[in-house]
Design goal:
single chain, globular, Isopropylmalate Dehydrogenase, alpha/beta, ten-stranded mixed beta sheet, 12 helices, two-stranded antiparallel sheet, binds nicotinamide-adenine-dinucleotide
Length: 357
């Protein structure tokens, strides 16, 4: 029997609620598909700061490095916003991504037929949407130096640096190529090369790498236009390749095409070693502790983990089918309620999904 060791980081806010559902679902899948999964739970984010004064303790990072995959819920809360930047839960995320060298973030956006009316966009605009955002994750403005704030002057200043070297752009382009080759073979690279030097390097490097790829069509788009096109005609996109900051914003925008941010999974990967699989959404402090969060983004992240991280393709498919069956029967969490659905709590919809596996 195949045996896997995964690390589960429940984090903050709704994290423990959606993690509880994920644990039960993974246990059921392991029984149904005959593999053994050891789930090691570690503190990460605000809860780790509370206990160790560090949002990403070394012990957690070491366990993650020694695992087959990491399943992460979400971190953050307004109560940590006044901490020094390096102590905030979000800095823990950046530390984890750096520690595991997770340079590629993959976010699939696919419309589930049963949820077509949950989107704020018209049905005919979104019905054929099936795209993937490939975002560079450990470079660009979130990591660039110099960065800082200068307060002891008459007019306080703050600054960040958006920087890439060509090797960082090449390796993320290679990932986009791999993914496009398994899909409709279209890459749209998004930048702001009309204004930013770093984007000009991005565009030149992507074009250079792509010049060897005869089967894939490449288009380039400025990020402001890409934001507009994502709501005007999102079905035109297959693979969107972009940098850390632009990918952060565009992938949340793309998330809303599906009806709720509570539906979108993601995978953060390197070329070898464990990946981190996590929902796109944050810790939703406004609904935490109420048992009303939507656990599906985390379950679909678990499905990506089974497929990409553990090569348990049948288990991943069985989980996706179970989610679809529950949704097609009209069961929803509150975020997806269209006024006609049967609204369930986080744990109740989890049980329905488990019953379908
Ligand atoms: P958010 O994604 O937490 O919430 C945005 C809105 O979506 C809220 O109304 C929330 O209730 C709703 N929502 C999110 N996930 C949901 C789910 N699964 N089910 C139902 N509704 C859901 O974003 P925010 O409010 O901007 O940030 C809250 C905290 O999360 C902040 O501290 C932020 O820094 C952090 N954050 C963490 C991550 C992460 O852990 N990867 C990502 C984004 C934000």
């Amino acid at each position: 029997m195949k045996k896997y060791k995964i690390v589960l980081l429940s984090g903050d806010g709704i994290g423990p609620e959606i993690s509880e559902v994920s644990k039960k679902v993974l246990k059921k899948l392991s029984k149904a598909h005959n593999f053994d999964i050891e789930i090691i739970e570690k503190l990460f984010g605000g809860v780790a700061y509370e206990k160790y004064g560090n949002p990403a303790p070394d012990e957690t990072l070491i366990q993650c490095k020694n695992s087959d995959a990491v399943l992460l819920a979400c971190v953050g809360d307004v109560k940590y916003d006044s901490l020094a930047r390096e102590l905030r839960p979000e800095s823990g995320l950046l530390k984890l991504r750096s520690a595991l060298n997770l340079f590629a973030n993959i976010r699939p956006v696919k419309i589930r037929k049963s949820l077509i009316d949950s989107s704020t966009l018209k049905k005919n605009i979104i019905e054929n949407v099936d795209l993937i955002v490939v975002r560079e994750l450990i470079g660009g403005i979130y990591f660039g130096n110099p960065r800082g704030q200068i307060y002891n002057i008459k007019t306080p200043k703050a600054f960040n640096t958006m920087v890439y070297d060509s090797s960082e752009i090449e390796r993320i382009t290679e990932i986009a190529i791999k993914i496009a080759n398994q899909r409709r073979q279209k890459i749209c690279s998004v930048d702001k090369s009309n204004v930013l030097e770093v984007s000009q390097l991005w565009r030149d490097t992507v074009s250079n790498v792509m010049s060897k790829e005869k089967r894939i069509s490449l288009s380039n788009m400025y990020v402001d236009n890409a934001a507009m096109q994502l709501v005007r005609d999102p079905a035109q996109f297959d693979v969107i390749l972009t940098s850390n900051l632009f990918g952060d914003i565009l992938s949340d925008l793309a998330a809303m095409l599906t009806g709720s941010i509570g539906m979108l999974p993601s995978a953060s990967l390197n070329n070898n070693g464990p990946g981190v699989f996590e929902p796109v959404h944050g810790s939703a402090p406004d609904i935490a502790g109420k048992n009303i969060a939507n656990p599906i983004a985390m379950l679909l992240s678990a499905s990506m983990m089974l497929k990409i991280g553990l090569s348990e393709h049948n288990a991943a498919e069985s989980l996706e089918n179970a989610v679809d069956k529950v949704l097609s029967k009209g069961f929803r969490t509150a975020d997806l309620d269209d006024g006609h659905s049967k609204v369930l709590s986080c744990s109740e919809i989890g049980c329905k999904i488990i019953d379908e596996i």
